[in-house]
Design a protein that fits this description.
Blueprint (H helix, E strand, L loop, with lengths): L8 H23 L6 H36 L8 H24 L1 H11 L23 H7 L17 H5 L23 H18 L4 H9 L13 H13 L1
Length: about 250
């Protein structure tokens, strides 16, 4: 069966998204001007434009790999029917969940994904703050606010794209109770898009090349969660959550 070609909806969504950002700015100014950080929004927009530009190259490369795998190794074909769309939707969403979760729990992937979490604000422009070095649908606003929060109990929680059931099944769900504080556990304090894009990569390679330890431990800096140190002095998100839980029990 000939599969019909569908337009890239991203290109149609861009003008609508820009309009909603402008409306958000206007409404925010009318309510309380100091709430909107224009430099932060400009940085997010610059990151989004860079992501789209670099994505044109990376997507061509990925498409080439997909064609190679399909022509050489594919074992079966998914029929173009209604139930296949539902099956693929759930399969893709679970795949996204695990990719997103790994992007928080593995420093190599976090070096790219940190860009999306680097803003200390949470508005529509934040969705544009996307990585330049690694090519989002929301579940509910509350669930996603938790995901962007730096409160210890919210760290590395609510990774799902569409169906929050993945977080509930795999033990990473957290409801929104305390008011979220946005940004990073250690904020970068810069609006420079170049620094936002590459600062964590610089930190990662600095740890690898300056640490006086074995090659095996140096490799662990790429594989372990953000905050891990070979000498045991690092503080992980799980450590912060355990400390918070301990304080709650007092």
């Amino acid at each position: 069966m000939q599969i019909p070609e569908f337009p890239n909806l991203i290109y149609y969504a861009i003008p609508v998204f820009i309009a909603t950002v402008i409306i958000e700015v206007i409404l925010t100014v009318k309510v309380k001007m100091e709430e909107y950080e224009y430099k932060d929004a400009a940085t997010s927009i610059a990151m989004g434009l860079g992501n789209v530009a670099i994505g044109l190259i990376s997507k061509v490369m990925v498409l080439g790999v997909f064609y190679l795998v399909y022509n050489s190794f594919h074992l079966f074909e998914i029929p173009f029917t209604w139930w296949a769309w539902i099956l693929v939707l759930f399969a893709e969403d679970m795949t996204y969940y695990w990719y997103h979760r790994i992007s928080h729990e593995n420093r190599f992937f976090w070096a790219s994904h940190i860009v999306h979490h680097s803003s200390q604000k949470y508005n529509l422009s934040t969705a544009l703050r996307q990585t330049w070095t690694g090519s989002f649908t929301f579940n509910t606003p509350s669930h996603h606010r938790v995901h962007h929060a730096t409160n210890p109990q919210y760290l590395d929680r609510n990774h799902a794209g569409i169906f929050i059931i993945w977080d509930r099944i795999f033990g990473s769900f957290e409801p929104e109770i305390e008011k979220p504080i946005y940004g990073l556990t250690t904020n970068i304090h810069t609006f420079n898009p170049i620094k936002v894009a590459f600062l964590e990569w610089f930190g990662l390679f600095k740890d690898v090349f300056t640490s006086k330890t074995s090659v095996f431990n140096k490799l662990k800096y790429f594989l372990k969660p953000p905050g891990w140190k070979h000498d045991g002095t690092g503080i992980l998100a799980t450590d912060m959550r355990k400390e918070w839980e301990k304080n709650q029990q007092k």
